[in-house]
Design a protein that fits this description.
Helices cover 27% and strands 27% of the residues. By secondary structure, the chain is an alpha/beta fold. Strands 1, 2, 3, 4, 5, 6, 7, 8, 9 and 10 form a ten-stranded mixed β-sheet that branches. The longest helix has 14 residues.
């Protein structure tokens, strides 16, 4: 499953990536000090104040789109605190990556609580996925695309690790839906820009009809006609 040049060492449920014998290091956006408050911050501040959105509608999206996925190899780019484990059936083989060790520890507890027997969590960057080509059926990226420094590289990496006809399921804030001009961290790309970026990487782009504040929901399919 991993690239040949990658070495992984596991400690307390997390997989640390080594390249050429050196451990990779990353700096989370807010540092790990806020990881224990992540879910509360999202529910009480980010969704109502920044996204001007309903977290209940967002969770309904996750439930509807994930509940019928079974016995697949699933990658989540930017696992966060592991909330996907509440909606993704536990018979899937899950791999999650994030640059926050604190959030990954939270995710580890949630995947255990939700009876996942086959899950692995990696401390690594979305720009340098440690996995071999064409091994995942599904990729999930939930509220994270605005945080990636090099979105083109991330999209190419997702395209690389997805199987043919593999699907990316994504949610992200977009500027044209930010009616009140709330300050949202990271780099915001419009729906048109996202469509172009994904299609340039060989993934078709299909917006969902969900309306929820600043958030755009879409899927991208590898190998579909673009």
């Amino acid at each position: 499953m991993l690239k040949k040049e990658i070495e992984v060492r596991t400690n307390k449920g997390l997989n640390y990536v080594y390249l050429n014998g050196k451990k990779t290091h990353y700096t989370p956006w807010l540092g790990d000090v806020f990881s224990s408050f992540y879910d509360s911050i999202m529910e009480k501040s980010i969704f109502p104040k920044k996204f001007e959105a309903s977290i209940d509608i967002h969770n309904q999206f996750l439930k509807k789109e994930l509940q019928n996925i079974h016995d697949k190899k699933v990658l989540e780019v930017a696992t966060g605190s592991g909330n996907v484990s509440e909606y993704l059936p536990c018979d899937n083989k899950y791999a999650g990556i994030d640059i926050s060790k604190g959030l990954l520890h939270s995710a580890f507890r949630k995947f255990k609580k939700n009876s996942f027997n086959e899950f692995t969590l990696f401390l690594c960057s979305a720009e340098e996925l440690p996995f071999q080509d064409t091994i995942f059926d599904i990729c999930i990226c939930n509220l994270s695309f605005n945080f990636f420094e090099n979105i083109t590289t991330v999209i190419k990496e997702i395209q690389r690790v997805l199987k043919n006809n593999g699907i990316l399921i994504c949610s992200v804030p977009v500027p044209e839906r930010n009616i009140k001009q709330s300050t949202i961290r990271g780099n915001l790309y419009s729906e048109r820009e996202l469509k172009e970026l994904f299609e340039n990487a060989g993934l078709s782009f299909h917006p969902y009809e969900y309306k929820n504040g600043t958030l755009l929901y879409f899927k991208a399919i590898k190998g579909d006609s673009v």
